[in-house]
Write a structure and sequence with these properties.
Layout lengths: L1 E3 L5 E3 L4 E20 L2 E18 L9 E9 L7 H10 L5 H4 L11 E8 L5 E7 L15 E3 L8 H5 L3 H9 L1 H7 L24
Parallel strand pairs: 3-8
Antiparallel strand pairs: 1-2, 3-4, 3-6, 4-5, 6-7
C-alpha cells in the first residue's frame, strides 16, 4: 500500500491486521499540549516504536527491512491509562501495587509481542492494541537498533537527541523538562510548558 503527500512523495504503509512485533525504541517527549475532541490537554508523553517482525518493506532505501509502527502514550499507570492497559495485555497480567510505585519502561525494549494495526481517520497505520505472544510462538531476531531517549537528567544524552527526527526534536525542545536541562538555572512548572507544539497524538510528527 502506497500513500502520497501533496508534493508527490510516496512511502509504504505497513499492512493492517495482527502482527508479531518487537519493541525497538522509546522516546520521551516531556510535557506536551495536545487537543482531543476540542479539549486542550497538558500531559507528559512518550512514544513507543515496534518493528513488525514478518512484514518487510518492498521499495525505497529501506526495502527488505521490517515496517515500523509507533504509538503515543501518556506517562501514567492509572487504571484507565492506555499505557497500563497495553502493558497489562502484553504481560498477560495487571501490575502489582509494588510495580505501580515505579515501572522501568526500558524493560520493554527488545521484547516481542503481538500488535493489531488499523487505520487512523487520515488513513495512516496506527497501533490499535498490544497483546502477548501466543504460547510457543517464535519471533525473528531484532533488525533495527535499539534506541532510547530520556529527559531524566541522569539519562539525557545529547547524541540521542541529535538522532531524533525534526518533528520529535521540535516537540522535545518545547518541553519544560528539556528547557530545565539546557538552562538548569531556570525552574519551570511542567504544567505550564513553553509554547508547546500542537499535535495530533494519533500521528507521528516526521
Amino acid at each position: 500500500m502506497l500513500v502520497s503527500d501533496s508534493g508527490g512523495t510516496s512511502f509504504e504503509q505497513p499492512p493492517t491486521g495482527t502482527h508479531s512485533a518487537r519493541c525497538i525504541s522509546i522516546i520521551d517527549l516531556g510535557t506536551q499540549r495536545s487537543t482531543y475532541e476540542g479539549e486542550v490537554q497538558i500531559k507528559h508523553q512518550f512514544v513507543v516504536r515496534w518493528e513488525l517482525s514478518n512484514e518487510l518493506m518492498t521499495s525505497g532505501d529501506f526495502a527488505g527491512k521490517p515496517f515500523t509502527v509507533s504509538k503515543f502514550y501518556t506517562a501514567s499507570l492509572h487504571e484507565k491509562a492506555a499505557l497500563r492497559k497495553d502493558l497489562s495485555a502484553w504481560r498477560g497480567r495487571d501490575f502489582t501495587p509494588e510495580e505501580l510505585k515505579g515501572f522501568d519502561l526500558q524493560s520493554i525494549l527488545g521484547k516481542p509481542c503481538m500488535l493489531a494495526v488499523g487505520l487512523s481517520e487520515k488513513g495512516k497505520a496506527k497501533v490499535t492494541s498490544v497483546m502477548g505472544l501466543p504460547k510457543g510462538m517464535q519471533v525473528p531476531a531484532q533488525v533495527n537498533p535499539t534506541f532510547h531517549f530520556s529527559l531524566d537528567r541522569g539519562q539525557f544524552k545529547a547524541d540521542a537527541f541529535e538522532a531524533l527526527s525534526k518533528g520529535f526534536k521540535e516537540m522535545v525542545t518545547a518541553s519544560p523538562e528539556y528547557q530545565a536541562i539546557i538552562k538548569p538555572s531556570i525552574t519551570k512548572d511542567p504544567s505550564e510548558p513553553p509554547e508547546p507544539i500542537e499535535f495530533d497524538d494519533q500521528e507521528i510528527p516526521f
